[in-house]
Design brief:
Length: about 375
């Protein structure tokens, strides 16, 4: 038996999400004002876009939470979402490039990054597959189908090119498979098998190799390859303990590229100092913690795997972004969930959290809310 409580979702996760959304909107306003004024002659352009998008998606998520049936478990929904994502990943490769990449699906005034949606669709597909084949996960041949799907999506994302997101998707999908019961020895062989193609894609693009070299030799490339990370660390260091105060960042004055997108954590550190960064890290820690609790208390195997996979994507993406900003990982354009400007990332992040909240509303007969 399973009970459903309308709006009986995990309150801690909901409140944490709202705080991150509000903080993200304020930081986008602060970090993007100068750039928006010069580019669009509207200082609040990015702030208004982010706020409108967040409001619309939040309303959609709240409406989805009223649906009593677990729609995300339906094969029709899962394969429709997977097919839509695959179609967009194929179409973007023949669309006119944006910033010398083919990452965006553009239709009229609508622009969307399908690689963000791939994270949700693959998690739901893997949860469905693992649930259906739960008793046969010890057989290596059973894994050919999910590995083929994940490999195809990864290859298309890398082809855009977006190597970092592709590797993130592949790595976390493999972890989801491992959580779903793949034997350690099979997991090890699969992991070894993906290294050669990833190494080929990495070495085939000189700029990727240069990023790796710049990471291991930061001082020798401060003026060229490592300029962005150097400016990011300067922003973090100049914030001190309490920061220079909200809106007073110097690095956002065209010193730090992508200050309102991938490197917004550096602006948070500059304006709010160490205490501000610890607050943000604490919020993401709560988000991941509540996701784990939801996964543990989920009423069925599918929901447990889906909740764990969605939580992994949110947590690892946040960790990867922060480590890049701090110079602890090679530079890669991965947004900070709910804080960076980017409608595709925000929409898919909120949808993922919406699914987690929906799962938290469902309880088995011997389970209770956390």
């Amino acid at each position: 038996m399973e009970t459903f409580r309308t709006y009986g979702f995990d309150k801690a996760l909901f409140v944490t999400t709202i705080i991150l959304l509000l903080l993200g909107s304020l930081m986008v306003m602060s970090a993007s004002g100068v750039f928006a004024e010069r580019t669009y002659q509207k200082e609040l352009y990015f702030f208004s876009q982010q706020l409108i998008g967040a409001a619309v998606v939040t309303v959609v998520v709240m409406l989805l939470l009223r649906i009593r049936k677990p729609f995300y478990k339906s094969p029709v929904f899962i394969f429709a979402l997977l097919g839509l994502t695959l179609a967009m990943l194929l179409v973007v490769l023949v669309m006119p490039p944006v910033a010398k990449t083919n990452r965006w699906f553009v239709l009229g005034g609508f622009r969307f990054q399908p690689s963000e949606l791939a994270k949700i669709s693959l998690v739901l597909f893997l949860a469905w597959f693992l649930d259906k084949k739960r008793e046969k996960m010890g057989e290596l041949k059973i894994l050919l189908i999910p590995l083929g799907v994940v490999g195809l999506f990864t290859a298309l994302i890398i082809r855009e090119p977006d190597f970092g997101t592709g590797v993130l998707v592949l790595g976390l999908c493999l972890i989801v498979l491992f959580l779903g019961g793949v034997r350690p020895k099979h997991f090890a062989w699969i992991s070894l098998a993906v290294i050669p193609p990833l190494a080929f894609f990495l070495l085939s693009a000189p700029y990727r190799v240069n990023r790796i070299l710049a990471f291991f030799s930061p001082q020798s490339s401060v003026e060229s390859l490592n300029f962005q990370v150097a400016q990011s660390k300067f922003a973090v260091g100049s914030g001190g303990l309490f920061g220079v105060s909200f809106g007073e960042s110097i690095q956002k004055m065209f010193f730090l590229p992508c200050s309102h997108t991938d490197f917004i954590f550096a602006i948070i550190a500059e304006e709010f100092g160490l205490l501000g960064t610890l607050f943000v890290i604490a919020l993401f820690t709560i988000l991941v913690w509540r996701g784990i609790i939801i996964s543990i208390k989920a009423p069925d195997y599918f929901s447990q795997i889906a909740a764990a996979g969605l939580t992994l994507f949110l947590g690892f993406q946040a960790m990867l972004n922060i480590t890049v900003v701090l110079g602890l990982a090679p530079a890669k354009g991965v947004p900070l969930p709910l804080l960076s400007y980017g409608r595709s990332s925000m929409v898919c992040t909120l949808l993922a959290i919406g699914l987690l909240l929906h799962i938290s509303q469902r309880h088995g007969d011997k389970r209770s809310a956390a």
